[in-house]
Fold this protein.
Amino acid sequence: MTENIFNERPHKNEKLESIDYVKNLIEKARDESCESDIPKLEKLIRLLNFKKYGLVWEEHAEEVEEKMKTKIPVFTEDVSKKIMSNPDSEDYNFLLEGDNLHSLHLLEKTHLGKIDVIYIDPPYNTTNEGFTYNDKKVDSNDAYRHSKWLSFMEKRLKIASSLLSKNGILFISIDDKEYQNIKSLTDEIFGENCFVTSFIWQKKTGASDAKGIATITEYILCYCNNKDKSKWNNIFSQNFGSFDKNRYRHTDEYYNVRGPFYYDNLDRGGLTYSDSMNFGVEAPDGKMIYPNGRQKFEKDGWIWKWGKNKIEWGFKNGFLEFQKSKNKANGWALKYKNYLNVDNEGKPIERSAPYKNLIQFVINQAGTNELKSMFNNKSPFSNPKPSELIKYLISLSNKKDAKVFDFFAGSGTTGQAVLKLNQEDGGKRTFILATNNENNIAEEITYTRLSKIINGYKASSKTKNLLYEYKFTISKLKNANNVLEYMENVIAENRGKYDSISKSMKDNVLQVFGEYNKDSEVYGIPANLKYFKTDFVVKKEFPDVSLEYELLKYITPLVELEFGIDITNPKVQIVLNEEQLELLIDNKQLISKSTIFMHPDVFRDDKQNQILQELQIRVQEIPNYFFGTELWAK
């Protein structure tokens, strides 16, 4: 019997095969003197060569996916790596060791539509570093390196799209090498309407050894799983420090409801012109005034910002006011009031602005310095992202209890970012990190880093944390006293937590840092963590229904993952059959006000239901999609 040999290019290029076939027909036509057929066949080749819009590449298969046809991935817990430093919380974070494609397939069972934020920093497929595909390094000499990378990313992003919640946000770090490809691929998977922006991150200040023009930036693609852009302001955080409160210095009879206001001219030039917005308004002296101070209708490009009906409403409700003006030919300026607490339709509002897509406050070296401070002044991981960068991205989601997922977890920066952000704003975010254990990265770097962040550590080198930041503009200078007062409060609150507090002012940005000296004890951020490893169940070893019974042994990690629990908690139990339930009742092992996660096929009689009700035990049915061998097959 011939052994099946894995072929990573299982789909031959049908287009080239078709063209070769037609070329053979042309040669045959020439040999058989069928000259009339040749122009038609040549036209067919031109049609086959016609390029269509969209991303097209030669698809490659992965061994990790092919092996799932015979081996089913499952999770097992490494209990020796469990961390419980926050006993007051029942929330758990998870580190998943194994190929991320296996982890993603398993998370399809537990987190379909439940992830709020995904951040990934995938391999950049650079000519220097390449990436590993089917246990081989793909380098610049590989003619298929782009198509292999796209095949690699497509499989993972398709599953990631199914994991995102309705308002979920996706962030992807990338550089110039694959930016166009990943943008086209993600547009195809998530939809162009879900694209929010490409963040431009200035990762370093210069590159003196660069040839031609120095590249000092990278990109971070951002997608929102909700295509309704009118909802985005409620999904993304808003910058409430983006406006100058001192500008609102006027008051009127509506102050108690609308707050203070400032005036702005109602006429505008440069907007899209329309005759319907270029009309006369009667001034207090009876004159008809037009936009741009005109006394008659002219098409000079100027219009009113509001239409006739809204202007009538504005006068009636105190939003509009005429003021005498020497600068206007008609002698009048028509102005509207911008109130602090309501919009120009009278609806309550919190003044803010969207954050910008330019990131300049942290450079890549900060990520390396973070690792050095934890790993004996050496960085065990190349080019780790700074936690401040990831923390900022996660903070752009309005959900303070977000489930955050990173399936290219690397050194664990995303986990640190989640914990730091929770510490700063009181959030209850949790994270799931997935990484392979190539060169023991999961155990010796990712886990070790998370353990240090949670439990505290002795700094190997001087390190600092950003405590406060404020960007000054000319209009914000009036607010300087308030900023300085707030800064001093931040310093006072943190003085005992750090060896020193430093301040800096660069490019109009005021920053305050808490600094640790070398060998200082860095306080931990209390949290709970479970460590799962990927294992496999070989299908042929468990024929027929025995496979389903075997897979029941691995239900517990899935329940813990989906519900964020720890089964060793006495108030949490899993019941997979009637015998288990009977034993718990007979041995009086049921705990009042606890939760039982129960197999949906477990039958309970009236007496058992009565006992559960009297003990106020909540029964949570284990989802059906955890069972059935066909759901495990990929």
